[in-house]
């Protein structure tokens, strides 16, 4: 039992924001509420089985292509590049953007050993090289890593016949799109800058 318990605690500490203390508390909760806990885990497993990545934009989705990529009501000429699926969600919630998306799945972060090859940049080039997009709106986060990623993409896309724009400031440096309020993010998208 002790070994099983320790294993569960160490598994739970892999979740973000869960330290050893919270993991221990959670483990006791799970043990004391077996039926409820099993229901929770069954819905998690069901959810994980159902959701995969859209082969076009990379977003999490229960269909491939995802709802956004397959929608006929969205502008096919503008592509918004974001770091994470949570950024896409934040932008969608503003209701200010009706184009396509491309998710990089991270940013360039040398300290964490993450370079361009670890991101969905090859997929981005494949999508943009045919000239289907008139504009690429880069909406990386206002952090040092987000800025480096933006500069890298700007260079990479410079010789393509496409307008590059960047999400406007208004989101403080060091902030993140995910946690920006809807109004600020909506304005940042509407008052984007052309490079
Ligand atoms: Zn998609």
Which compounds are bound in this model? zinc ion
- Alpha-carbon distance between the termini? 61 Å
Strand content is: 5-15%
Q: Radius of gyration over alpha carbons?
A: 20 Å
Q: What share of the residues lie within helices?
A: 40-55%
Structural write-up:
This protein has 195 residues and is α/β, with parallel strands linked by helices. The chain folds into 2 domains: 2-50, RecR Domain 1 (Helicase, Ruva Protein, domain 3), CATH 1.10.8; 60-194, Dna Topoisomerase Vi A Subunit, Chain: A, domain 2 (3-Layer(aba) Sandwich). The chain is 44% helix and 12% strand. It has 8 helices and 7 strands. A 5-stranded mixed beta sheet has the order 4-3-5-6-7. α2 crosses α3 and α5 (85-94) packs across α8. The chain is elongated and about 65 Å long. The relative contact order is 0.11. The model has no long low-confidence stretch (mean pLDDT 90). Residues 54, 56-57, 59, 65-66, 68-69 line the site of zinc ion (ZN). Zinc ion (ZN) binds at residues 54, 56-57, 59, 65-66, 68-69.
SSE blueprint and pairings:
Layout: H1 2-12, H2 20-32, H3 34-50, E1 52-53, E2 60-61, H4 67-70, E3 78-82, H5 85-94, E4 100-103, H6 121-128, E5 135-138, H7 144-157, E6 163-166, H8 182-190, E7 193-194
Parallel strand pairs: 3-4, 3-5, 5-6
Antiparallel strand pairs: 1-2, 6-7
Helix pairs in contact: 1-2, 2-3, 5-8
Zinc ion binds at residues 54, 56-57, 59, 65-66, 68-69.
């Amino acid at each position: 039992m002790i070994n099983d318990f320790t294993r569960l605690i160490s598994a739970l500490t892999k979740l973000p924001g869960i330290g050893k203390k919270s993991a221990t508390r959670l483990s006791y909760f799970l043990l004391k509420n077996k039926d409820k806990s099993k229901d929770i885990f069954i819905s998690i497993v069901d959810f994980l089985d159902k959701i995969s990545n859209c082969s076009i934009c990379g977003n999490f989705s229960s269909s491939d292509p995802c709802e956004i990529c397959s929608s006929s009501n969205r502008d096919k000429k503008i592509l918004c590049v974001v770091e994470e699926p949570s950024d896409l969600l934040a932008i969608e919630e503003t209701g200010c953007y009706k184009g396509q998306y491309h998710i990089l799945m991270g940013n360039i972060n040398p300290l964490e050993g993450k370079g361009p090859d670890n991101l969905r940049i090859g997929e981005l080039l494949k999508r943009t090289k045919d000239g289907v997009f008139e504009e690429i709106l880069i909406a990386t986060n206002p952090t040092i890593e987000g800025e480096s990623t933006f500069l890298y993409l700007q260079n990479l896309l410079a010789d393509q016949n496409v307008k590059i724009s960047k999400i406007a400031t208004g989101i403080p440096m060091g902030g993140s799109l995910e946690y920006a309020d809807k109004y600020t993010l909506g304005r940042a998208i509407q008052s984007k800058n052309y490079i």
